[in-house]
Each structure stands twice: as C-alpha cells, then as structure tokens.
Amino acid sequence: MMLIDGPSRLMGELEVQGAKNSTLPLLAGALLCRGQTVLHNCPELSDVDAAVKILEHLGCRCKREGHDLTIENGVTCHEIPEELMRRMRSSIVFLGAIISRCGEARLCSPGGCELGPRPIDLHISSLKKLGVQVKESGGWLHCSAPGGINGAYVSLSFPSVGATENLILAAVCGSGTTIIANAAREPEISDLCEYLNRCGGRIYGAGESCIIIDGVKELYGAEHRVMPDRIAAVTYMAAAAVTGGNVTLRDVDNTHILPMLTPFEESGCRVRQLGGCLDILAPKRLSAVRHIRTMPYPGFPTDAQPVVMAMAAVGDGTSVFVENIFENRYRHAEGLSRMGARVKVEGKVAVVEGVPELTGATVEAMDLRGGAALIVAGLCAQGSTKVRGMEYVERGYEKIGEHLSELGAKIKSF
Ligand code: EPZ
Known about the structure:
Blueprint: E1 2-6, E2 11-15, H1 20-30, E3 33-34, E4 36-40, H2 46-58, E5 61-65, E6 68-72, E7 79-80, H3 82-87, H4 95-102, E8 104-108, H5 121-129, E9 133-137, E10 140-144, E11 153-155, H6 161-171, E12 177-181, H7 187-198, E13 202-204, E14 210-214, E15 219-220, E16 223-225, H8 230-242, E17 246-250, H9 254-257, H10 261-266, E18 270-274, E19 277-281, E20 291-293, H11 305-313, E21 318-322, H12 332-338, E22 342-346, E23 349-353, E24 362-364, H13 368-380, E25 383-388, H14 390-393, H15 400-406, E26 410-413
Helix pairs in contact: 1-2, 1-7, 4-6, 5-6, 8-11, 8-13, 11-13, 12-13
C-alpha cells in the first residue's frame, strides 16, 4: 500500500526507467539466440521477474546485476506452466519464439486481465499462416510446426502489438520471407527488431505498417540497451503537471513522447525537449485537456489515458476521452471520483469536469496504469490518500514511491 500526504509540488530531476513493454519481447527474442544476450537498462519490475522465471523454466540461465540482465540460452523445454502464465498476461509473447526454437509450444491460454477480455485470436490466426498447427483444449494451447515455420504474407485486421511481436519472433528464424501488413508501429517493435537484427536477423520496415522478415538459419546473442519507457515518462510528466511542479526527465526518447504532448500543452504546461531530456514546467492551475482519443501508435497511446485523466480531473474545464483500444480501461474513474473528481463514463467515452481540488481518500488500484493515475491524483489532493493494490503498479513502475519522494512528494510505502 502507498500512503501519500498531499498536496506537494514536484521539483528536480529523474532518470526514466527502461521500457517494460520492450523488455518482455526482448526476453522472448533471447530464447532464439545461441549463446549469451546482455540487456542493459533492464528495469527491475515484477513483470520482468515473472518473464525471467519463464525463461529459467524453459532452460535458460539468467543473472541480474543492477540494470544489466544476462541470459545464457539453453532451451530444453517448450511448456509454460499455468502458475507462470497466470502471473503475467503478456506471457503470450513467448509463444512464437518457443515454437520457432522447439518446433512446438504448450501454454495455458492467458486469462483475461483487468482491462477486459484479452483475446489472442490475431496471434493464433497469424501463426497458422506461417504453418503452425494450434489445438486448444481445456484452456491449454498446444502449438506445433511439424513442417517448420514457413514465410507467408500476413495482413493483421488490427495493428496488434503482441501479435506483431509474436509474428516477428516466429518468422525471424523461419524459412522464406514473411510480410506483415498493418503491423503495429509502436517503438517497442522497433526496439525488438533492432536487437534481433544485431543478433543476425534480417527484418526491414520496423516502425512502419509493413514489416518484411527474411528468415535466417541462426541468431547469436548480442548486447542491447532497452529503450526508455515512454509511459513511465508520461506518468512523471502528469505528476509534475498536477502539482504545479518543474521536473526534468533524463534518458527520454523525445520522438516517442510527441504523440502525448498535446494534452500537456493544452493544459498550460511548458514542455522543452532537449536531446535525451525533457523539462516540464506546470502552471498553478491546469486548463482542461479537451479531447483525447486513444489510437495505435503514432496516435495517443491507451497506456497514457489514465494518468492524463488524473490531470483532467483538476483541469479548469471539460475534457472528453474516447478509449478505442481496450474495453474496460476506465476503472480508475471510480477511485478518482472517490477523491472528488467529476467523471462520467458511458461505454468508450468518459467526460471529466475539472474541479479546483481533490480530497485524499482510500482508493484501490485495479490495473497498472489506473493505479498510477490514482497516485498522480493523490499527489495534488488535499490530505492523505491511501492507494491499495500496489502490486499492480509495481508490475510496471520501478521504485515509483522512491522516485516521487526524491522529487518532493510525501510518501510512505507499506
Ligand atoms: C501491448 O499489449 C502492451 N503490453 C499494452 O500495455 C498496451 O496497452 C497495448 O500493447 C497497446 O499499445 C505489452 O506490450 C506487454 P494489442 P497487447 O495486442 O499486445 C485486441 C501496459 O499497461 N486484440 O495491441 O496485448 C486487444 O484485446 C499494457 O503496459 C484482439 O482482439 O495489445 C486490445 O483490445 C496494457 N485480438 C487491442 O487489440 C488479439 O489477438 C490491443 O491489443 C490481440 C489483441
């Protein structure tokens, strides 16, 4: 649990962590490589710990020294047990790599998650096009590629991040050429492909909607620095914004931040981007953020919607959100309302009437980014806020309590 004594004004500098959503597919990629992979800037998160446990279960040896994670490949098993699958819904990203490396894979279908049902139909239909046979029974997926993985043309009906990653991981050591149309363009995809190409892969067009993969025989482990976490960055920007603060973030890839800048500028923040740094100076009172529609990259990312809603909760005016990516991604509205925010949710749309101030309360994190939104709100609320369910937040934010305290927040974690 986290206890926040508000309001506070955040001032100072912070180094942004490595990206959770890049680290996970990179770990799956390490399964494909002979020898040793070293990931630098690897964040210390419970989701990464869960992924390391899966790698070790599959036969790899992993060693962490601070933010450096070394993976010695030695895959001897193709099954992910239920308790490991359950711990992290995104473990589905290992599927393509295990099939490619072992010729088959067995894992329990990942349950839904706090964001609603998380179907994997695009993953499965895409892998079938590469020659993978899939049997689903009793909640288990048994996939095999008796004829190996063969290159194919795959057009995704939706630019799914996970399905794009699974396709790349399955096809990079397949035979022939794979073309992915309507591929996801998120920066984490480019980070994965940069690593795989350094290991000997031949992947072209990462970051664009059409990705071409010429299958190669073997990949050899390499060193790679995990890209900065753009969602952690925008979370600390929102924390500075609601507290009328002035914060400098180091190790930011400013290109990745561009799709998220508009609400900060609309609400009256001054954001300066300089090389790998970003400086945000917030006004005493935020204006409304107006209209936010979440979209696949390079649109406004769904993962930033909750923390920007926390900003809108204290903005002067009305803000409208349309959540186009996940079905159930407004669960933080309940906690914000308990703190005095005026949020009205109708299906995909949420309307927020900004209030001059929030009041501390006991609130429950229901998912990773929703929990971060409640923390952001607690920083500017009058009085103390108790955030329960911190296990969700610790999945994706490294030492968030310590970092906020270093910037001047009054926080105790239990
Ligand atoms: C990745 O999830 C991220 N997770 C999510 O971040 C992020 O919100 C999402 O991409 C969108 O950017 C990781 O990278 C580990 P999708 P993923 O496949 O791959 C539907 C966070 O907070 N869909 O692009 O699961 C799906 O239900 C997390 O860090 C299908 O219908 O996202 C969702 O509505 C949350 N069938 C939409 O597409 C499929 O086969 C986007 O999913 C796959 C997805």
